[in-house]
Design a protein that fits this description.
Layout (H helix, E strand, L loop, with lengths): L1 E10 L2 E11 L4 E6 L5 H8 L7 E6 L2 E2 L2 H4 L2 E4 L11 H11 L4 H14 L15 H13 L5 E5 L7 H16 L3 E5 L3 H7 L2 E6 L2 E7 H8 L2 E8 L3 H6 L3 E7 L2 E6 L5 H8 L3 E8 L3 H14 L1
Parallel strand pairs: 3-8, 3-9, 6-7, 7-8
Antiparallel strand pairs: 1-2, 1-4, 4-5, 9-10, 11-13, 11-14, 12-13
Helix pairs in contact: 3-4, 3-5
Length: 299
């Protein structure tokens, strides 16, 4: 289990991380979210032992992060960190050796992953000759070749088409089943919702939202009601107390309400119309992120 306890990081007078605490259990996928400059990269570097926190501590399975422990960590960076003049095989051997693996073991694991990602034919190709999507697959393989206990994924689907995104998603979920702790960061909120039960949203290094996603949505209270039908009394719905907005969307209307107590009032107004759809949905993580982060900037 990864434990991050009250870490603070200053760059001069700038506080990049502000008393951040969280834990990631074995086999758990944890979301770390925030705008660019929110402190995510600094946090990752502290976890990997590349930076020392000004205050606080980080441990993996009870051990303070040092060079011995970092051999148990894998990291897929947003910016590719591949040596593009090397072949795929040499690149992965290089990373595996850095993690203390023997070459025979590295090649066995590498070929398993290359086959899984349908790129076995590229073993002896130079990295620079590969597409961006296939380079991203090689970066992922390099990060997991040593079976890490902790895997940090920073925008892991960058450059991948939908088919390859699904391929990588299945690989991540298999690592989760093996007990790997995973920290997932992405600007695509639907990806976070797909993977993460628990998350933190950072603004200027400070956590402003944290907890289980289901609890965050419940506490947020706002709901979305999707309506489809003829002769809907939109003017009357709009006048209801607690109705925040009505937006047409692909032949439907999305009614945002302050909480679920407004939903029965909306239904009373539409139940006798030619109604073909009435769904009350939780807000998306994207809505919560925009509201919370935007609200922080306005305050």
């Amino acid at each position: 289990m990864l434990q991050v306890k009250e870490i603070v990081k200053y760059y001069g007078n700038n506080k990049a991380v502000d008393h951040l605490s969280f834990s990631v259990k074995d086999g758990e996928i944890f979301g770390l979210l925030g705008e660019n400059g929110a402190g995510k990269t600094t946090t990752f570097r502290i976890i990997m032992g590349l930076l020392e926190a000004t205050e606080g501590e980080v441990s993996l399975n009870g051990k303070k992060i040092n060079y011995d422990v970092t051999d148990e960590i894998g990291f897929v960076t947003e910016e590719r960190s591949l040596l593009t003049k090397m072949t795929v095989k040499d690149q992965i051997i290089f990373y595996g050796v850095l993690k203390g693996m023997e070459e025979e073991e590295i090649l066995k694991e590498m070929r398993k992953w290359l086959q899984r990602f349908d790129i076995s034919a590229y073993e002896n190709r130079k990295i620079k000759e590969l597409s961006k999507g296939n380079q991203q697959k090689i970066q992922f393989i390099s990060a997991v070749i040593h079976h890490p206990k902790l895997l940090i994924l920073d925008e892991p689907f960058s450059g991948l088409d939908p088919i390859n995104v699904e391929m990588l998603k299945k690989a991540i979920l298999d690592l989760q089943k093996e007990g790997c702790s995973i920290i997932f960061s992405s600007h695509q909120m639907e990806q976070i919702e797909d993977f993460c039960e628990k998350l933190i949203i950072l603004v200027k290094g400070k956590p402003i939202v944290s907890g289980y996603l289901k609890d965050i949505k419940k506490e947020y209270k706002r709901k979305n009601i999707l309506l489809r039908g003829d002769d809907l009394p939109l003017d009357k719905i709009e006048k209801l107390k607690g109705v925040l907005s009505i937006t047409p969307y692909r032949g439907e209307y999305e009614v945002k309400v302050a909480d679920d107590t407004v939903a029965p009032q909306v239904f009373d107004l539409v139940k006798n119309t030619n109604l073909t759809k009435y769904d009350v949905e939780e807000p998306t993580l994207n809505e919560i992120f925009i509201d919370k982060v935007g609200g922080y900037h306005e305050s």
